[in-house]
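dude i think i finally got it to work??
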Amino acid sequence: MPISIYIIRIFGRRYNLSGEVELAPRLKAYKVFATGKVQGVGFRRAVQQLARKAGIVGKVKNLDDGNVEILAQGEEEEIDAFLASVRELEALVKVDDLRKVPTRMSGELGSFKIQHGKTPEELEEGLAGGQEQLILMRKDLNGFSSATAGNFNILANKYDKISETFTILTAQSKQFTDTLTTLTNLAKEYFDERRATHSSKESKKQS
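look at this
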């Protein structure tokens, strides 16, 4: 009987000192049925990436009814975290619901794989996904174009307001300069007149 001391865990498996694979007691297995916009949008590839990141083993495949089946095996907490990340997928994917059903453990799962269908079906799904991606890119570009045009309009309006304000300030500055010049001339005339009057009085005293 091998010594049941676990020394390493790889892809949901634990290896004992004899090199034999043993399933850890805490590992669980679930079939998860995903409904929504989950076919023809790169959903299986995204699920595979998330599963490998979370350390989940299993597989994902398309169903004939338009839904997707995920077989996930790992620790309960890891599976829950993995499914939470699947629910948060955005862009082309829209997950309406994930129904989790317990299933039997399998010691044959070494990684997380995509179970592909027949070649024509895969090609059709790939083309549909590419078309969806192009539509999304076109919407993004249209949105960017509209936003850019809007920003230019805002800048143009702001420039017009700045130009108008600058024109007003220039006119006010000229008016202030003219007023200051007028006051200076008046002051000069006043002091010249006072100086002339004073000189006249001094001349009369001397005579």
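The CA atoms of residues 10 and 82 lie 17 Å apart.
im so relieved honestly
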